[in-house]
Design a protein that fits this description.
By secondary structure, the chain is mainly β. The chain has one domain. The chain is built from no helices and 5 strands. The protein is elongated and about 35 Å long. The protein starts with a strand and ends with a strand.
C-alpha cells in the first residue's frame, strides 16, 4: 500500500483515490493542518506561511517534516 501525508494527516492510495488513514474518506483540500489547525489560504498556501515572494514552492512541514522554501 502506498502511503503519504496531506497537511500532516496520514493518507494512502487505494488504487483509485487518496484517502485519509483515520477515516478512509477521500482527501479534502480543506482539511486543516495537523500542527497549527489552520486551513490553506484561498490561493492554496499554508496559512502559517502565506505568500512568499519569489518562492515556487513552500511547506511548513505540518509537524511531520522540516519546513522548506524553494526560491526560483
Amino acid at each position: 500500500m502506498t502511503k503519504s501525508y496531506s497537511r500532516g494527516h496520514e493518507i494512502y492510495y487505494d488504487g483509485t483515490d487518496w484517502r485519509y488513514t483515520n477515516n478512509e474518506k477521500v482527501i479534502d483540500e480543506h482539511r486543516p493542518c495537523k500542527k497549527c489547525g489552520r486551513t490553506p489560504t484561498p490561493e492554496g498556501y499554508d496559512a502559517c506561511l502565506g505568500h512568499i515572494d519569489g518562492a515556487s514552492s513552500a511547506c511548513c512541514g505540518h509537524g511531520i517534516e522540516n519546513p522548506y522554501t524553494i526560491i526560483d
